[in-house]
Design goal:
heterodimer, A: 54 residues, mainly alpha, 1 helix, B: 464 residues, 3-stranded antiparallel beta sheet, 3 strands, 67% helix, 3% strand
């Protein structure tokens, strides 16, 4: 098999396509953590306070 | 669990994107001359998706798509259905005859171009614009309806609920395998025999379970084109043509067993079609996988088929895995729904993505190879005939510029994924009681959509 690292110059550009996915997943994980903290710290709110959905 | 799912998703996508790649850029669409690097289009597409997500979260607080009104556009005579059916039977007969009796030369025989370009790709495009046109022209449905009028009536068996769309999954996977793996796929005679076999299976299925039930659930091509037709702004409703906003028909998708698998096969096979002619696979991927099979004693030919079958299956697995990642993330919010239930509720959001992949990957094929119909219509059997006076025409590869193709591909992927986000957001508002939970659940769908977009653009860029 061709060692993947042998031709870094040929494939490094592919990494750029991965960047948006990694950034979004990272940002969403941070946001999810913030949401959990806020829900845990704040007073419990009744269902639908922030808008019933149906 | 969530961390594992995230890591698995990143590894899944990363493994594909970090494979050795594009040194040479030679493809069917010619060289592009773009003002910015291609990967920047992926970044821009991701930004569009994030902006769309924020706009949906703030401007779309209540579900709107369920039960959306359709407008009656025009009536049409019922006789149109049998007339189209007769045309479908006639075309099917010509293509099969061309395959069996015509010159066994791929470019000189109507059968390969008709089946792989006009039927498989052209009808998908037509379904996206005009609705379910294949239903009317479906030759085996038309034959079964004719037979139903002549033969004595019998009550069909109840179609097993567990079977759902699984027969369609098998048939579409089989066709994708034929197109992407089978080395004899271009032999007209083989295609004609397989077409006859396919029609025979459909006729038996319709005879046993009923024409419309079989057509709606099990006939692979009917189901395939019917799914795309749900995104169309037109719907043919038994004598009346109705209009509706594009994409909203997906919201009414009936979730039957096999639906997620079918969409994974549709998106995965289209992706592998692009990937298999890209520099990653052609450069070393196929050889590497092939060597695994030659190492255990397979001949080079068999190893090549096994390598491509493996690639096809892996790509389908990647698509299913990305969707599963989004569903697992949603499930972590609670709500008591299983991944199967959530998968069923949100699978319709994959429909515009499947359409986007088809448009992006096959637009150039249709634009270029579709022109072959010009000379094949005059000489369908390769006998030197000139029935319509167009036998001397040829394919003009300058009809669409390479840059235009790239922009169409990017636009298709962005529009398809934004439509997927809209469908998923609306369904989340129905699924979760609090709109805050609905929005949080869509964090994961956003990640999935960005993953699909990046993957699609990377595959397309590697074929340039």
């Amino acid at each position: 098999m061709t060692p993947i690292l042998a031709h870094f110059g040929h494939w490094y550009a592919s990494l750029f396509y991965l960047v948006p996915f990694v950034v979004i997943v990272g940002a969403l994980k941070l946001q999810a953590r913030r949401d959990r903290r806020r829900d845990g710290a704040g007073p419990s709110r009744p269902d639908g306070e922030d808008g019933e959905s149906s | 669990m969530r961390r594992r799912a995230t890591l698995a998703g990143a590894a899944l996508l990363g493994g594909l994107l970090v494979a050795p790649a594009p040194a040479g850029a030679h493809g069917l669409v010619g060289r592009t001359d773009l003002p910015i690097p291609r990967w920047l289009f992926a970044w821009a597409a991701a930004i569009v998706l994030v902006v769309s997500f924020v706009a949906l979260a703030t401007l779309w607080p209540k579900p709107r798509l369920a039960g959306i009104d359709e407008r009656r556009l025009v009536g049409y005579p019922r006789v149109l259905d049998p007339v189209c059916g007769a045309i479908g039977i006639g075309l099917f007969a010509v293509v099969v005859y061309a395959g069996l009796a015509g010159l066994q030369e791929v470019t000189a025989n109507l059968a390969p171009t008709w089946i792989f370009v006009i039927f498989w790709v052209g009808l998908a495009f037509a379904s996206l614009v005009f609705g379910d046109v294949f239903r009317a022209f479906n030759p085996w449905r038309a034959l079964a309806r004719m037979a139903g009028r002549i033969l004595p009536r019998r009550t069909p068996l109840a179609y097993p609920a567990w079977l759902g769309r699984w027969p369609a999954v098998v048939m579409i996977f089989g066709f994708a395998w034929l197109e992407l793996v089978y080395p004899e796929k271009d032999v007209p005679q083989t295609l004609a025999i397989l077409s006859l076999a396919y029609a025979a299976v459909q006729l038996v299925g319709m005879g046993v379970y009923g024409i419309e039930v079989w057509t709606d659930r099990a006939d692979g091509f009917s189901v395939y084109f019917g799914l795309f037709a749900r995104l169309a702004p037109l719907r043919w409703a038994g004598g009346v043509l109705v209009g509706r906003p594009p994409f909203v028909g997906a919201a009414d998708l009936e979730v039957l067993p096999g639906t997620v698998a079918l969409l994974a096969v549709m998106i995965g096979s289209t992706s592998f079609d692009g990937f298999s002619v890209g520099s990653v696979w052609v450069g070393s991927g196929e050889t590497d996988v092939q060597s695994l099979f030659t190492g255990i004693g397979a001949s080079v030919g068999t190893a090549s088929e096994l390598a491509n079958t493996t690639g096809l299956l892996v790509m389908i697995g990647v698509i299913a895995g990305l969707f599963r990642l989004g569903i697992a993330g949603m499930q972590s919010l609670g709500g008591g729904m299983t991944t199967r239930e959530l998968g069923g509720r949100f699978v319709h959001s994959l429909l515009p993505i499947a359409a986007a992949y088809v448009v992006a990957h096959y637009f150039s094929l249709l634009a270029y190879q579709g022109q072959a119909l010009g000379y094949l219509a005059s000489d369908p059997f390769g006998t030197g005939a000139d029935l319509l006076g167009t036998a001397g025409s040829s394919i003009d590869y300058n009809v669409v510029a390479a840059n235009v193709i790239w922009y169409v591909q990017v636009a298709a992927l962005v529009i398809g994924h934004v439509a997927g986000l809209v469908l998923a957001h609306d369904r989340a508002l129905v699924t979760y009681r609090r709109s805050a939970d609905a929005i949080r659940s869509q964090y994961w769908m956003l990640a999935v959509m960005v993953g699909f977009t990046s993957l699609g653009l990377w595959i397309l860029s590697s074929t340039q």
